[in-house]
Amino acid sequence: MAEDIIGKSVERIDALAKVTGDAQYVHDLELQGMLHAKILKSPHAFADIVSIDTSKAEKLPGVWAVLTGEDVKQYKIGLYLVDKTILAVDKVRYHGEPVVAVAAETEEIAQHALELIEIEYNELEPVLDVKKATEKDSPIVHEDLGEYEHMEGVFFPEPGTNIANHFKIRKGDIDDGFAEADHIIENEFYLPQVNHVAMETHTSIARWKKGRKVKIWSSAQSPFAVRDLLGKGLGLPHESIEVVVPYVGGGFGGKAGIHFEPLVTLLSRAAGGRPVKFVASREEEFNSVPVRQALLSRFKTGVNEDGNIVAQEIEFLWDSGANADYGVNVTKAAGAAGCGPYEIDNVKLDSLTVYTNKLYGTAYRGFGHLEVLWATERQMEHVAKKLGMDPYELRKKNILRPGSRTITGEKLYEHSGSVGKCLDEVAKALNWDQKKEEPSAPHKARGRGLALLHKAPAMPTDVGAGALLKFNENGSVNLTLSLVDYGQGTYTALAQIVADQLSMPVDRVNVVWENNTETEPYDWQTVASKGLFISGNAVIDACKDLKKQMKEVAAGPLRASVDHIVLEDEKIYVNHHPDHYIEYKDIGMGYTYPNGNGIGGPLMGRGRYIAQGLTNMDKETGQGLPALDWTFGAHAVEVEIDKETGEYEVVKMASAFDLGRAINKQNVIGQIQGGMVQGFGSAVMEGYQFDGEGHIRTNTFTDYKIPTTMDIPKDFTPIIVETPQVDGPYGARGVAEHPMISVPPAIANAIQDALGITIDELPLTPENIIEHLENK
Amino acid sequence: MKRTISLTVNNRPYTFEVDDRKTLLEVLRKRLSLTGTKEGCGEGECGACTVIMDGQAVTSCLILAVEADGTDIETIEGQSIDEDISDVQQAFIDEGAVQCGFCTPGMVMSTEALLRRNPNPSDEDIRVALAGNLCRCTGYYTIIDAVKNAANKRGGKK
Amino acid sequence: MIRDLAYHKPDTIKETIELLGSCEGKTSLLAGGTDLVVNMRKDAYHPDNVIDVKGIEELKRLEYSEDEGLYLGGLVTCNQLIFSEMINEKYPVLVEACKKHSSHQIRNRATVVGNICGASPGADLAPALLVLGTEVDVVGPNGERLIPLVDFFTGVKRNALEEGEIVRGLKVASPIKGYKANYSKKARIKGPDLSAVGVAGLASREEGVVRFAFGAVAPTPVYLDVSDLFAEKDYKAAKEELMEKVDASISPITDVRSTEKYRRRIAGVYTRRLLEELWGEGDK
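ok -> structure tokens follow
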């Protein structure tokens, strides 16, 4: 049993609750006396708020609280760059920004109250173009940027402009590099804002309690981040805030950080402590919660005739929208991976977070890497085309290898994982070295494309997490930790780790599902594909601590040295006397001698882990060690395109990831499939559309489409590559975000191969293809 | 306006007064506390609220509760008794077709309705039957496998 | 959130017409509700009265006879057509159109007549019913009348019904001898989506009939009977003229779903392909 458990496709521990509808999400929770919140949102992209009259709404029977920006303007919320108020203050900066909030006895009353509120706006010229936003004469979105608190020495806002952060990489000598190059290739790439589309919309309940305390139930990825940011934002001590996270219906980064929790807290306080619930409607999910940023990239690449890339100059203009709290970190983290998984000696990279009057940016699965690698992997194709070189060969020549240095100067080792293996695996799966199949009809064309990817967790250098293991009376254990499993399957993998470490069946490990900041050990956030790595190590540490205690207590009754005590199959014995044992259940709460003497007491394993050896990056050169671990991957895609309509089908696809070690194969495959399809959505169909005044045109499922069962590639092969990570639990590294990265360029490269057109903006719609074919 | 309706939900008869403007979904979730049926969009596009009404899969967010007067409704809660779960539910577990779980009740109900009218669905039949159920986690592959698995098991039982 | 309303459920058409006359404020008929309830929830439309017609037996008629053709009552749903052997045999183009209409769950509720009454420019059933030859069976306070479907659509989401009138059903002509028909739809995704372009074609060599109809490329569905063209000219010339006619008859717009230019292209390509499928050059 125990020795086989790692790598096994153990049934998800949450599966039964979910298939039966038994799992309770915040959506499903109701509290006694609960009020319902509704928000009135900005109809404009950029406007001064001239006046707000809430008097009629306040008088409506059943209304308990009405809040405007004026009531909450002293509170600022943020993690990296604190630029956001809870409701719009003086100005609205995007279409959909919350302006007034109401809490009432029913949703109907709250809705009616919103209709009684009168607001006068003075419309301003919105900043909608990220390029123009950086020009000198552009209107300024945040005139107070210079006063905003931010992580000093990590982020560098430029007051008086729309630039919220400027991240730089300087490696080698860019001028020398270009001087040496045989060819210089320049291109621009673009992709629009994209929504996370978690199936459960953002939902929070708060109950304000006497003594300036609050209890919150939230569909959050990171209970401690909610507690910390709420405490800092509202001036409440940490110990006065309790955050509970039950089942969460998907996150993908969209529920990282903090969202409506401060608003419901203040509404509950204003309503005299009655609990207040806010459920974002799907429309609000599309136009009032943050999204993945748009990105405009400019690449200039110097390459030698033999395919060796010698210099790369890059500018990233991130359209961060109206707030840049999270956007600044995306800019930094993805900037640090800006050249893709290639070794390039001379690099100059500038990554700018730019304010505009659009929906603001946040974390989204891949944390900037899908955006950045859209550009790098398209640029590789342009380079290959220019040189007349096989795109596989060009990549193979330039990839990062053991001994290579990344653009931040980090040296890679054998155990860092292998992008080359991933590339070879997917090339093999698509028979890259053989001729393509003939198209199925004369008006169709076939093409194949490759794309590589890499990503390290984007997180502060000192991220840590704890884990606590407690015995139950029957010898089973409860594991508590505040990493949240909102679908990734991490809890099942952690249960497998505990089962292996403690030598017990996995069904005797109960991972406590509901998260609570009052009772569980700290974790920074559930983001960045660092969950299994950091919490896995913390759990192993907790198991070691527990085993040590078990041996110490057992040493007495077994009359042996702890050095010779073995734990196996829920039994503790001296190694040469396996038949003389103590069962776990007889030691978990302390051991009792036949005469009644008790020793040991209830055993608890404490575990902790913190990222080790990471450094901040230098302000001027970006050099440093930001990467906990690198997960590499590759996609290969074959498409068949209708040349008359631009409609196409991904007829075959394979994706490989070097994830170190799969703890649970079935769940890993599930992550790869699901991530790939999200990337497929970004590639093929997704993207916000705005009108000329900055109004969102795609704020329902009728207008914003995501892949359905009928859209996904029918022939998809996920491939697991396992180069163990020295410091990962059982050699594992993260793979939650990676599957969606580089799916768009893989498809675009296949389209290029089929039709000879170079499409450098997403999504890859049939319209887009026809447009390029017509202009060919 | 309000009126009294009678309906059967998961084989249990109910008669109660309901507001004309309430949807079946709201009544199931709030009035009958059957929160396994989810709301993902409120516009009939995501399928999270799928229930079986008189034998047919429908999106309960687009049906007024008063329209359900005299009907027979099945929800996810009716698919299992304690630990005794349906073969569709077991197939979803076995194939790893569950991630965040928010779409899962709707998926299970759509699958149940499909297998009752078509015990041997082709790949295409499955994709068509589930095209109105959005899932953002799984990419659908394991869900399609789960439907096939359940169909095989059900075929085997006959 | 739906606003307060009064719900009525009459048993007969007569009662319905009386209710339409007597209800105060805005009144809507409710069949499948797949449009109405969405609009009420979004607060895009809030009727004071909703008349649920699902209790009216007469509206459930789905009958076919060789002489009379098809009668498709107001309550017949898209899935009823998809699963009807008779429809699959006699009017497979209706099955195609219904399959492309929406998700399975919606098709269990959505009625064909509702799709027509909604008069959306992109209504998926309109092109197929137009090429088949359809009349709308209308009952009102002043009696009954039949409106040719082509005259039923009067503007974006506007139809020819007058105050107090309801659609009892659709009369679809008997199948033309030796006819073939099909419906092609362009949408943003392969799964359920509103139409960006819909093209239905019908052709019978035996009877010398060639008809096309288009959705989502003009404020109302566009109908073209080009039988004469194919009678008078040789195939190639007729085809060329058809293509010109299509381009001249449609007036697409650019919106979130597609662009004017692309819609024109697709309308053309789909028309040509349908023609070749239904009446190829070699067939003549």
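The longest strand of chain A covers residues 309-321.
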